[in-house]
Automatic annotation (TrEMBL):
EC number: 1.4.3.16
GO cellular component: cytoplasm
Annotated ranges, domain Fumarate reductase/succinate dehydrogenase flavoprotein-like C-terminal: 431-511
Protein name from the UniProt record: L-aspartate oxidase
Chain's role: Catalyzes the oxidation of L-aspartate to iminoaspartate.
Molecular function via GO: L-aspartate oxidase activity
Length: 528
């Protein structure tokens, strides 16, 4: 077992983790744990762009109100205003760091960069780099982080658990490398930037989705988890049962894409006056209903009427990817289905990324700041990553030298060993069953009976896992145990919400409750 020590340990190398690392590195020694699979993480696959008030024709209050409406009454308005007000400066930071956003070359352009519009927004305020914004941001920031003398990137280790000192404060993390060797990563401050929990479901919008491991690592230290029931399903993921997941950006609908049912008819205008640009929860439910009524297993997203030149200009990545799968989207509509996309819930934090555990911070999708409420508005995700990474850095940079160390001498380390015997086939079957259970009973539409079935099935799966590895010593069984516990907490959160709101829809509770508040759970809620 090896051990190392740093000022700040950041777990996760997407937009949030890279932004935090770069903002801190001039003062602190930063260790950034960024496994190779992060190149397939959610940040890289974010196509549409980043929402911010940039045009002189837009205003902060409009962005605030659009976000509050999309959040369906559960947003923390203070968090919304904080995010929106700090958005323009965060975008300027990216521009200053060389992110190649798409320019607006129109003679009458009101802003230097092209701004598109997405669902829930009443103005064009989405800055983007063609249709591969996440890729452009991650590659630009990672290029700088890779050469910074005060940032040590660890792509050889996967974090499995967090560590606490004798005072109960987080003092780093425990992980294993590809050869199975254990590593202790001690740090004065630890920040989770591990992403969401869409991997709890069968179908997702990213090829290598996280399954909430960071959320449960924090919960294991006593952190509170908030709003887990609000799992967003992106309305339009490419339907191709034989190929990997691929997101079809909401910007496609923002530029005029139309959703068609099996009869070739638009159905969104009859559902919502905003039609295809209604918030994602509404569009996803409408698509799901059409799929249930039909026989194809998908609906169509049609952009042929935009013309081949416009499609090539606005959506080169989507055009090329679909072509690689045998589809010419300039001549035929795109088959799409909703898929698990974004976790609006996560580790409860304040406006500076602080959790309820001393020494532990959470930023990005792993965190729940109150910004999204019951439903995330399009392109507010990367905005949240940027704003809260920068505010978290502000807090850490204000920390005096006398307060930057915890009692690191005796971290509480639980045993991990890849030498532990484990039936990997049985483990894979348990994971597949978990995902099938969540997709069947805890997805776009939830029923009381189905949630009860899911609760019992997930508890039984956890019992089976413990029989395979009673002490959860093997890293893979430890991960799955985290996943199962988070799935059980998600079901419990859904069971406790006796209403339909945002992303949580149940025909058994079809209306808003008279009073509604965020849900908060801890690991103790399911401990047996």
């Amino acid at each position: 077992m090896s051990a190392s020590q740093s000022d700040v340990l950041i777990i996760g190398g997407g937009v949030a983790g890279l932004t935090l690392a770069l903002t801190l590195a001039d003062r602190f020694h930063v260790v950034l744990v960024r496994p190779a699979q992060d190149d397939q993480g959610a940040s890289r696959w974010a196509q549409g762009g980043i929402a911010a008030v940039l045009s002189p024709d837009d205003n902060l209050e409009a962005h605030v109100q659009d976000t509050l409406i999309a959040g369906d009454g559960l947003c923390d308005e203070r968090a919304v205003r904080f995010t929106v007000e700090n958005g323009p400066a965060a975008i300027q930071w990216l521009i200053d760091n060389g992110v190649p956003f798409t320019p607006d070359t129109a003679p009458d352009a009101r802003y230097a960069y092209h701004l598109t519009r997405e669902g829930g927004h009443n103005a064009r305020r989405i800055i983007h780099a063609d249709d591969a914004t996440g890729k452009a941001v991650v590659e630009t920031l990672n290029s700088q982080a890779s050469t910074h003398p005060h940032i040590t990137q660890r792509d050889d280790v996967a974090v499995i658990d967090l560590l606490t000192d004798d005072n109960g404060a987080c003092c780093g993390a425990h992980g294993v490398d590809t050869s199975g060797k254990a590593h202790i990563l001690l740090a004065s401050h630890t920040a989770l930037a591990t992403g969401g929990a869409s991997g709890l479901y069968q179908h997702t919008t990213t090829p290598a989705p996280n399954s909430g491991e960071g959320m449960m690592m924090a919960a294991s230290l006593g952190a509170t988890l908030m709003n887990l029931e609000f799992q967003q399903f992106h309305p339009t993921c490419l339907y191709d049962p034989e190929g990997p997941a691929f997101l079809i950006s909401e910007a496609v609908r923002g530029e005029g894409g139309q959703l068609l049912n099996e009869a070739g008819e638009r159905f969104m205008p009859a559902v919502d006056t905003r039609a295809e640009l209604a918030p994602r929860d509404i569009v996803a439910r409408a698509i799901d209903a059409e799929i249930q009524r039909g026989s194809h297993g998908h609906v169509w997203l049609d952009i042929r009427h935009l013309g081949a030149a416009a499609i090539r200009h606005h959506f080169p990545t989507i055009l090329a990817h679909c072509a690689s799968r045998g589809m010419d989207i300039t001549r035929e509509p795109i088959p799409v289905v909703p898929a698990a996309h974004y976790s609006c819930g996560g580790v409860e934090t304040d406006l500076y990324g602080r959790t309820s555990v001393a020494g532990l911070y959470a930023i990005g999708e792993v965190a729940c700041t109150g910004l999204h409420g019951a439903n995330r508005m399009a392109s507010n995700s990367l905005l949240e990553c940027l704003v809260f990474a920068r505010s978290c850095a502000e807090t850490l940079l204000a920390t005096s030298a006398d307060n930057t160390t915890h009692a690191l001498a005796s971290p509480n380390v639980t045993r991990l060993s890849t030498d532990s015997p484990l039936d990997h086939t049985a483990l894979a079957e348990l994971r597949a069953t978990m995902r099938a259970t969540m997709s069947q009973h805890v997805a776009i539409v939830r029923h009381i009976e189905g949630l009860e079935i899911a609760s019992h099935q997930l508890a039984a799966l956890e019992a089976q896992l413990l029989s395979l590895d009673p002490d959860s010593e093997h890293p893979e069984s430890r991960r799955l145990r985290h996943n199962l516990k988070l799935a059980r907490l998600t079901v419990l959160a859904a069971q406790q919400r006796h209403e339909s709101r945002g992303l949580h829809y149940s025909p058994d509770w079809p209306h808003h409750a008279k009073t509604s508040r965020p849900s908060r759970l801890t690991l103790g809620n399911i401990q047996q």
